[in-house]
Amino acid sequence: MNASSRLVRPANPLRVINPHPSKHLPILLPCLYPRRTGVMDYFRPRKKPNVLDPLSPDFLKRKAAAPSQASQAPPQQGDLAPTSIFTQGEEKQAPSQFQSDKSRSSARDPTIIAAALDPNPESRRRWQRRQIIRDVRNRGALTKAQKIARTERESLCKSHFYLTSVKKLMPLARQVAGKPIEDAIIQMRFSKKRVAKDVRKHLEYARDEAIVKRGMGLGSVIPEANTVVKVDEGIESTEGKGEQDQQWPGMVVEDKKGKRRYVADKTSMYVDEAWVGRGKYGRDYDFRARGRTNILRPPTTSITIRLKEEATRIRLMAEREQKRQRKNVWVALPDRPITAQR
Fold first, then answer.
1. Could you tell me which residues come within 8 angstroms of residue 196 by beta carbon, excluding any fewer than 6 positions away?
2. pLDDT digit string (tens) for 200-231?
3. Per-residue pLDDT tens for 138-156?
4. What is the CA angle 47-50-55, rounded to 5?
5. Is the overall model pTM greater than 0.70, yes or no?
6. DSSP run (H or E) holding 275
7. Beta bridge partners of residue 303, listed in sequence order
8. How many angstroms separate the CA atoms of 198 and 174, rounded?
9. Fewer CB in 10 Å around end: N or C, the chain?
């Protein structure tokens, strides 16, 4: 072994050998070259990507040649339509050329609007024909249900499914049925049942929904709702003639169960009906000894609330009283002719 080989051998440990090429820094950087997928791609020259270093002179030249945002035209700002109701207190300006072109290009097409508002015109015509035939047969007279629907309000609200059974939820539904909405909420507030908390939240939601959607319970806000109008006899009912408005004094109302309550506002709400509905059964597991498992089927139940105003209860009480007065007095031996004796 010569001297040159002895000098070269100790230099082997000085070479840097990367045992893990995947951890090398350049490998982690994104690949800027297109991937070769075919055999002939290895014989074609690679195209350099159009990516420049922000500090390179070529990038600075392109940036200087590009138009700046300040030199570009300012964007067009929109405005209200000339016929908008929000421009009543403001001076209406003449529409610009840009707005007129935009309005001309985006004009509403009646056929498109009809497709959304009247998707099936033939069915609509048949339904209107049936309604006209029914009105002609009845000579324009409304049924009792139609008169009640036009003069009285009601709201129906169904809850989502609670994790409880019908047997546990039905007593709470019986407890709130027939009570004013505020009394029903108080009953659920102090109830010891676990599901009473969910029923109380549903009662509050049903009350708010009835106020917003149906306009119920607004007698304390709108005094005209509790106003009684009387017309003098022999005088035509015209504006300011023969009309005497007075506030409704309130009355004692008897429900169908015979319980009496004093009602000061005939627009106040009460729970007319409350019923429950069985939902789908869930799935749960009960792990037992020796690796055994029991499958549990927890039930779900919903509750539905129907709210009405006290004016409905007043009408029902008057109907029961009229029926009671029309009923004949019962006697043990009625006075009738004898026809079946010899």
1. 172, 188, 189
2. 999 999 999 999 999 999 987 877 767 665 54
3. 888 888 998 999 999 999 9
4. 130
5. no
6. strand 269-278
7. 276
8. 16
9. C
How many Å apart are CA 145 and CA 39, to the nearest integer? 84
Determine contact, residues 174/188, Cβ cutoff 8 Å. no
Written as one letter, the residue type at 329 is V
C-alpha distances in Å from residue 62, one per residue of 49, 59, 71: 16, 5, 16
Q: Is the pLDDT of residue 10 over 60?
A: no
Q: What angle do CA 22, 23, 24 make, to 5 degrees?
A: 95
Four-residue CA torsion sign, 113, 115, 119, 123? positive
Query: Phi, psi at residue 238, to the nearest 5°?
Result: -125, 175
Instruction: Determine the Cα–Cα distance for residues 100 and 147; give it in Å rounded to an integer.
Output: 51
Do 198 and 159 form a contact (C-beta atoms < 8 A)? yes
- Tell me the one-letter amino acid at 265: D
Task: Output the CA–CA distances (angstroms, integers) from residue 322 to 111, 284, 286, 326, in the order listed.
Answer: 56, 56, 60, 6
Token reading at 288: 């037992």
Residue 213 CB: number of other CB atoms within 10 A?
Answer: 11
Lowest-pLDDT choice from 20-24, 56-60, 276-280: 20-24
Q: Where are the alpha helices (DSSP H) in 190-237?
A: 196-209
Between vectors from CA 243 to CA 242 and to CA 244, what angle results, nearest 5°? 120
- Phi, psi values for residue 294, rounded to 5°: -100, 140
The residues near 314 (Cβ < 8 Å, ≥ 6 apart) are 251, 253, 263, 266
- DSSP β-bridge partners for residue 85: none
CA angle 244-248-311, nearest 5°?
120
Structure tokens at 58: 């070529």
Task: Quote the DSSP letter at residue 290.
Answer: G
CA-closest candidate to residue 316, choices 268, 272, 274, 275: 272
